[in-house]
Amino acid sequence: MIIRIDKWISDATQYSRSEVKNFFKYNKVKVNGEIVKKSGYKVDTEKDQIELFNEILEYEEFVYLMLNKPKGYISATLTDGEKTIMELLDLKYQKRLFPVGRLDKDTEGLILLTNDGKFSHQLMHPNKKVSKIYYIEVDENLKSDLVSAFINGVDIGDYVTKEARLEILSEKTCTLEIQEGKFHQVKRMFSAFDYEVVYLKRIQIGDLKLDENLKLGESRKLNKEEIGKALVN
Ligand code: URA
User: What's the pLDDT score for residue 14?
Assistant: First the structure.
């Protein structure tokens, strides 16, 4: 890909476009070892080697991260004063990435972030039926007939849910696999049977499991195999 070098550097680092423009004035940018003075200089992302402050920069066109979302953060890029999951990321990713779908403010666990619109669209599209698995704690003992009720579909007010697989783990804990993502879907499904969800954590998207080594608030890049796993339905 051929792009302007100031955009390239801004995308690859935490610096804004206007900050990057200044670096050219002070001879801080090199392409293939030669100082470049013009911020509009075009580079080939496949071939050219770009240095800032004498350090070679790595550039990736698309980035895919998994984040272990803590409670108290909104899954959005901009809000009115609320904490967003973006502030948990490295500065260089904060301005480039967006969350794929949402988790409620009080939900924890696996959320993906990317700058790849096509990937995000595929994952979110209802026809793709990518499954999501949640670990859930409720306020009352779970009855076993809930399993068949969830398979048959639950009326959550404005919508009847599609087949959902509930696995009861203990009196008040379970996992639930759904292939859709209606607003507050899990909480509303339990609420339809008078249960309150007291803890909710997403643990899997498609075949991709939340990395157990990630502490709350930590994120890491996905490798190629994991990117494919997220899209498995
Ligand atoms: N269902 C919910 O109710 N909340 C979430 O955050 C995700 C699924």
Answer: 83
Q: Is 104 in the active site?
A: yes
Residue 67 and residue 152: Cα distance in Å, rounded? Answer: 32
In total, the chain counts a number of residues equal to 233
Domain ranges in the chain with CATH number 3.10.290.10: 2-57
Cα of 92 to ligand 1 centre, how many Å? 28
55, two tokens: 């350090």
Q: Which residue matches tokens 């087949």?
A: 163
pTM of the predicted protein model:
0.89
CATH of domain 64-230: 3.30.2350.10
Does the beta carbon of 100 sit less than 6 angstroms from any atom of ligand 1?
no
Mean of pLDDT values over 185-203:
98
From 44, 80, 90, 104, active-site residue: 104
**Strand ranges inside the chain, DSSP E:** 2-4, 29-31, 34-35, 42-44, 50-52, 55-56, 64-69, 98-99, 108-114, 132-138, 165-170, 173-178, 197-205, 208-209, 219-221
Q: Contact, 76 vs 169, CB < 8 A?
A: no
CB-based burial of residue 94 (10 Å sphere; 0-12 exposed, 13-18 middle, 19+ buried)? middle
pLDDT of residue 82: 92
Distance CA 195, CA 161 (A): 17
178 lines ligand 1 (CB under 6 A): no
